[in-house]
Amino acid sequence: MTTPQASFQTDCEEGINSGYFASANYKSQQCCSQKISVPQQDISLEVCKQASQVPSRSYLPWHDYFMSLCYLTAARSKDPNTKVGACIVDKENRVVSLGYNGMPRGIKDDDLPWGKVAAHSYETKYPYVCHAEMNAILNERHTTLDDCSIYVSKFPCCECAKLIIQAGIKKVVFSELKPEPWEEQVPTRKMFSLAGVTCRKFIPSIHQLNLIVTDGIGSVSITK
Ligand SMILES: [Zn+2]
């Protein structure tokens, strides 16, 4: 038989975990009163909220966190014009892999061109640069990417779209559309649609995120 005491603990479990204290012993303190109904009788509970026990409201939501990692990772890129970052996340919101655009492994950054325009296409960066999505996918070799999500700071090109689909990734969240003609986005969107990969634009929950590291001491400020 369920006792009122047992119901009390179950009902308050979430509150305790999130920093709220529920106990009859707190009657003498500054408390807000909350009434919880149980099947057989009503019990008045004193739920005490102390400032030091309330979780911080100034934290980074998951989506903003993952997209912020994309931009931070993009800062590793040597590309003088376009820096892109990608972050792969599993269903448990664990970061599985990160990647940024760069030259293939083992090739020095100065050995291949970084320009966008040249007399011949092989004198531009385009045939050589590995995109952020490709690197994020290939950087993880030990865990399946099935049903994972990929966050990307820019809309994926059609070559990366194919890699994303073949890797088993089921959700794409991008932040920026490249200044390309609409037609160049069509193959990516068409393949995602046909393969059952959802693709949506990132909608931030925060207004601004500032990361400052000075003399090895870091601080982050979030403006919502
Ligand atoms: Zn790409």
TrEMBL record:
The keyword Hydrolase applies. Keywords: Hydrolase, Metal-binding, Nucleotide biosynthesis, Zinc. Gene3D superfamilies: Cytidine Deaminase, domain 2. Belongs to the cytidine and deoxycytidylate deaminase family. Its cofactor is Zn(2+). It catalyses: dCMP + H2O + H(+) = dUMP + NH4(+). Residues 61-199 form the CMP/dCMP-type deaminase domain. It holds the Pfam family dCMP_cyt_deam_1. CDD domains: deoxycytidylate_deaminase. Its EC number is 3.5.4.12. One of its GO terms (cellular component) is cytoplasm. InterPro entries: APOBEC/CMP_deaminase_Zn-bd, CMP_dCMP_dom, Cytidine_deaminase-like, dCMP_deaminase-rel, Deoxycytidylate_deaminase_dom. GO terms for molecular function: dCMP deaminase activity; zinc ion binding. Supplies the nucleotide substrate for thymidylate synthetase. This is Probable deoxycytidylate deaminase. GO terms for biological process: nucleotide biosynthetic process.
